[in-house]
Amino acid sequence: MEPVYRLVGADADGEDRAVEAPLRPTDLDGFIGQERVREQLDLVLRAARARGATADHVLFSGAPGLGKTTLSMIIAAEMGAPFRITSGPAIQHAGDLAAILSSLTEGEVLFLDEIHRMSRSAEEMLYMAMEDFRVDVVVGTGLGATPIPLELPPFTLVGATTRAGLLVPPLRDRFGFTAHMEFYAPAELERVIHRSARLLDVAIEPEGAAEIAGRSRGTPRIANRLLRRVRDYAQVKADGVVTREVASAALAVYEIDGRGLDRLDRAVLGALLSLFGGGPVGLSTLAVAVGEERETVEEVAEPFLVREGLLARTPRGRVATPAAWAHLGLAPLPQGDPGTGQQGPFGAGSGGHVASPPPRQRPPRR
Q1: Which in 115, 173, 238, 299 has the greatest CB count within 10 A?
Q2: Is 68 marked active-site?
Q3: 151-169, pLDDT tens digit by residue?
């Protein structure tokens, strides 16, 4: 599936990576949010420094854009160790992993993003490297193949995954510290936005920061992205100061509503309510109705709609909740109502169920 760019998408693009670098905090004290994770990680790092040893292997899980990469860099900075970054999709063979591990220096922090997407052969090699700091490199093929043990210097592996359920237990059990990253509260996102605004030299009022935070879907990366777009709008169509009115007008231009839903989210809800009376409806049918791929609806739009309580996944199909009707300003249809021609987002006559045709009558006997 081709990636779908969305202003409220949590995945990082090229611009995000370039802008995020100077915005990242360099120590735990400067990291905003994730209080419990920061407290636990601080104990792990302090204890390791007191022993003069490398830190335990760390696993971060959670949605994209919550700070897994930033915390990994902070671990290296707190330990005073070099930092190296790679990703699971880039390691397709055991030899790829062996080349990386053999070049590590003592105490180095290796960040492995999307660790669940690593190949199985490389994953099995990683077991021994994490536990015994050694790997067996096979030289030759067939009957002449010879395993050569290679000792590794002590290092810290920091794994990150957005799908912790795909990690096999043997790999997950080898991490000394695991942490799940939670979505941010609006107050925490406001602090993130104020900090980023200072670093980007953006004049912003508290009400403007609150408006952006409320539409950021609980994700700092999205909050920083929306801040940059609102800054552009303020510079072009206002006096450069981000107020509540400016932020609201700017996000309206980019079709981001008050709950953070964009065009795709509202299209899915609109089709579910207006064309199918709130469901249940199959995923493939819903995808055809909005003109998107099935995977796009399931993996891009649905997770946030479910988390916001606007959509439910049931064995019979997708069903809209009362909150979805209220959000789009529509009245829920009575149960069993065959169709009322209610005006919906897709035009007149698009709301409600389609009436069943009358039963076919048999001709009289002669």
Answers
A1: 115
A2: yes
A3: 888 999 999 998 888 888 8
